[in-house]
Amino acid sequence: MGAFALGAAGLSHTSIFDQGTQAGAKRDRMVWWREARFGMFVHWGLYSVLAGEWGGRTDYAEWIRNNAKIPVDEYEKLLGRFNPTQFDADRLALLAADAGAKYLVITTKHHDGFCLFDTKQTDFSVMHTPYKRDIMRMVADACRRHGVRPCWYHSIMDWHHPDYLPRRDWERGTRPVNGAQFERYVRYLHSQVQELLTHYGDVGVLWFDGEWENTWTRELGLALADRCRALSPDLIINSRVAPKQSSGLNAKLARAEIGDFSTPEQEIPDRGIPGVDWESCVTMNGNWGYNRADHNFKSVPTLVNMLVETASKGGNLLLNVGPTGEGLVPEESVVRLKGIGEWMRLHADAIRGTDASPFENAGFRATRKDKLLYCFVPEWPASRELLLPGIRALPRRAWMMGEASRHPLAVRRVDAGVVVSLPDHASDPVCSVLACEFEAPVRAS
Length: 445
Ligand code: FHN
Prior knowledge:
It is built from eleven helices and 14 strands. The protein is α/β, with parallel strands linked by helices.
């Protein structure tokens, strides 16, 4: 497969990513995203009908067509089984909103090529199932009703479209490439992105994925990003719109040279990713798509502390749910989202719109917002004290978040910094948060 000539595909690429325009415009469009710090990921599609099961195995999920080597015509039969009559877009948006998530990223098309929206580009869509309803329309409207930004996940890689290359290794014999034109697939991809950005009102983020195969080039990524920017100037685009963008780090950790934020997956980088916006996407159990057998869910304290860790390092957390074939979010996920929401209702100020911790090695996580410093204390110290290392000025006030009285805590200066005397008992069973207000923005030396 030679290098793809944009001109040949009727796509001209004149990047609008010049430094001056980019820097100013990016700062403006990232404001709500940096403020949010927390989003909900939704992996849902035909694969959900199979619940991770095929041929006697139960350890599949959204990659089931590839990993179980299901022939495309066999997989297409799932169209007749997709009828999620229990799906309730308002309930999904409310799950996100009540958990404290400010944006929701849902799969419009995953690698299997099935489209959950009313696309005119293919019949391999929800409109050709018994359900026949435009899920993106329902989700966009519900998100806006509940104060959550609708955002789209869209896979560049497509195991269904005849023009997408490369084929899966195991199906080269049954799905020959003759006649396939990758340029025609790129036009298909652009056409669907245009539908997704013009038919559903303002979309917060286009979260591309499946960018790693050798047919998708940096040039194609730039052209796609430019097309998105032209269609929706305030749209935020992730770094996976283009293939590996930087030497050394893998694509997900790459500095977001193209696109607006980097996308570490199932990990929170040790020291964050200094100098760029980034978002860690993580599953609650071991799978993105629904797997009936996977009950290995992280606890609420673990999930809350992942949210705290990303914010303390200056990043966002995108926490995933995988609805069932019937359109229901698994109860284990619902319970955990409610638990996160209970914590966020008392402590959201310590997460929303904050910057990374001012401390190198304080022994606890922290965030800051102008003159406020938030220190996270998941384990209550026997000393009933917390040293704020390197802090020189005494805080004007110190209190435990979640306490209506905001009982002022004693503070004193020591050589190593400032010591805050804590109450006898933790203020929160999941993660207590100490708030300190200073006379000036927080710096630690
Ligand atoms: O292959 C996909 C995977 O199925 C899932 O969608 C994750 C979510 O970030 N992205 C890809 C793996 O990096």
